[in-house]
Design brief:
mainly beta, Immunoglobulin-like, 2 domains, 18 strands, globular, disordered N terminus
Length: 263
Amino acid sequence: MTTSRTFLRSLRSVTMLLGAMALAACEKNAVQDITGTLPGARIKFFNFGVNAPGVNFYANDAKVTAVSSTTGVEAVTGVTYGNVGSGALYSGLAPGQYTFTGRIAAAVDKDLAVATVPATLVDGKSYSLYLSGVYNTTSKTVEGFVVEDDVPPSFNYLAAQVRFVNAISNSGPTTLTARNQTTGVTVTIGNAIPYKTGSTFAVVPDGIYDLTATSAGATPVTYTRTGVTFASSRVYTIAARGDITVPGTTATNRPFLDNTVNR
């Protein structure tokens, strides 16, 4: 008799334990298994379209960038001109064919696509998408393109590796050089790089550099950026944005050299 009662008590305990485990598995705050394969391709999103509105970027119909606000509601600013989405980090996507769009983030013309850029992402590779050119206020469109970020697979612990992307639509083929402020040595990072094109990565000894970009044409246009630090083992992209016809050093849409870390 005692043995039977002991058995029944044990059975009830096991049943209650199993029930509790099943209930916990159904709760919203239950521990979830988040292991799995990460997306095989990576891409960054830049809004370098002169006078373009702030946008959210989409891969097909999936939103891949957005700006939050203090209220917890998505901000209506989006990725504004001269900025990169997701804090300059790569977004992971499954390899395949995509139609990327930049859609207006503001309440007026909300989600109107101002740029449509088709691209195929390959497993294991990285990319950057640039809105570029000058925003057309009549058609509400701007240009765009994708370049592969062919980041060197190995680290160079003795120098930085830097490439140049030309995102200025009305520029000629552009050459970018970097002069070391300490040694005076000049390195060519990109030579005669056309619009919508990027150079290969050049090896640049670590240091502080003054950058000079020269756009070819009947009257070459030169613009600069000083005091740019390149650190050993890091990989950088210097991208030209703006309007090549805007003079001076203060206008928002002047030719400008943007510096982004790839790795």
